[in-house]
Amino acid sequence: MKYTIKIDNHDYLVEIHDLNTRPVIVSVNGTTLEVWPGEEARKSTPESVSTSSMPANTPQSGLLPLYPTPAQYAIVSKKVVAPIPGVIIEILVKPGEEVVYEQGLFVIEAMKMKNIIRSTRDGKVTQIFVTQGQSVNHSQNLLEFEG
Are 108 and 115 in contact (CB under 8 A)? Predict the structure, then answer.
């Protein structure tokens, strides 16, 4: 299935492969992403998986979690970047705070949907590059971890 999606005057070509496999493989403008359509479907470790800019529904919270893609994080990254353009509506951590893998870091609103950006690793937050209410672009740095 191929779709063209327009976000903030930018067109994105999205191709969704077999919906019956896990992870679902999606291509966005030629970049391949893994999408895990539910928390219970994720069986990966922090070293092997990262986020997708395609949200997976989490009915318990009403928010949509975002995970990094293996292509973006073959090696666990020190930085967390915005997987989609949007507005930071909540910052869930502070500099100096210890976080764990998949802990919520930010809530971003994009296309009238609230999305949780989760940690790609365990670590200590050294710097946050954004503020609440700030608009962010795709791949913009949001946070940095120590070492």
Answer: yes
Fold of 42-145: OB fold (Dihydrolipoamide Acetyltransferase, E2P) (2.40.50)
How far apart (Å, rounded) are the C-alpha atoms in residues 85 and 5?
13
Is the whole model's pTM more than 0.70, yes or no? no
Q: Name the residue ranges covered by the structural domains of the chain.
A: 42-145
| DSSP state letters, the chain | -EEEEEETTEEEEEEE--TTSSSEEEEETTEEEEE-SSGGG----TTT----SS----TTTSSEEE---TTT-SS--SEEE-SS-EEEEEE---TT-EE-TT-EEEEEEETTEEEEEE-SS-EEEEEE---TT-EE-TT-EEEEE--
Sequence-distant (≥ 6) Cβ neighbours of residue 112 within 8 angstroms: none
Instruction: Kindly report which listed range (30-34, 65-69, 71-75) carries the lowest average pLDDT score.
Output: 71-75
Indicate left, alpha or beta for 37 from its phi (over 0: left) and psi (-120 to 50: alpha): alpha
Pick the closest to residue 82 from 30, 135, 22, 140 (CA basis).
140
118 in Cβ contact with 67 (< 8 Å): yes
Output the CA torsion sign for 22, 33, 90, 101.
positive
